[in-house]
Amino acid sequence: MKKMLLIAMLTVFGVMNAQKGSVLVMGNLEYNSQNGTAVNSEIKSRSFVFWPKVGYQFHENWTAGIEGGIGNAKTESKFVESSESKSDVFSLGGFLRYSKPLNQTFSAYVDLGSGFQNQKSTNSNGSISSVDKGNGFYVSLTPAIFINVNNGFGLNFNVGGLGYNTFNYENENVNDFKNFNFSFGKAFSVGISKNF
Fold it and tell me: Fewer Cβ atoms within 10 Å of its own Cβ: the N or the C terminal residue of the chain?
């Protein structure tokens, strides 16, 4: 009887942490740095991206909210002349999440996100430099697993998803960009979240 009571209490505690009316705060952080050499050249690249989300759980299984992203990337190449490219990206949109508790510790969820994005790229090669600016939109579908570590605080794991991105550039010499991305099994992301 004591074991049954303990199991019931743990189940209620686990469900309490993600109840209707709670606020979800989460974020993913990515940093990448690479150094390499090619034929008579050195290449250095780095990138940093931060994706925060804030949502309101309006139903046991449904959460809606806003999401954003900010990041930059830089690549330097030294060959006969040095070249450098920089890129700054900003995005802002909304998301809808459906989550299903598997037990008091694990939940599976899928996020559908969509919004506006902006990119500014600067390329320089010796004395020649150019700046390209573009605006577009994105749509993403990302399944993931949530692990409740303690009191609604947890870790989020995903292994890719589906995405569609566009960029329309102001410079007529730069081609507009459209990309469909299927990354199941090709990407891995870890995030932190907290339900209040």
Answer: N
Residue 181 CA to residue 184 CA, distance in Å, equals 9
Q: Which amino acid is at 66?
A: I
Long-range contact set of residues 29-36: C-beta below 8 Å, sequence gap at least 24:
29/191, 30/71, 30/189
Which amino acid would we find at residue 109? Y
Locate the DSSP E strands across the chain: 23-38, 41-57, 62-78, 82-101, 106-125, 128-150, 153-158, 162-169, 177-182, 189-195
Q: What average pLDDT score do residues 126-151 get? A: 90
From 109, 108, 134, select the one nearest 122 (Cα to Cα): 134
> 17 phi and psi, to 5 degrees?
-75, -15
Is pTM beyond 0.85 here?
Answer: no
Cross-strand partners of 146: 107, 156
C-alpha R_g of the chain: 21
What the block records as the tokens of 123 is: 């390329």
User: What CA–CA distance (Å, rounded) separates 135 from 117?
Assistant: 6
Per the rule left: phi > 0, alpha: psi between -120 and 50, beta: everything else, 9 is alpha
The partner residues of 144 in beta bridges, in order of sequence, read 109
66 three-state secondary structure? strand
154-185 per-position pLDDT tens digit: 999 988 899 999 999 887 777 888 999 998 87
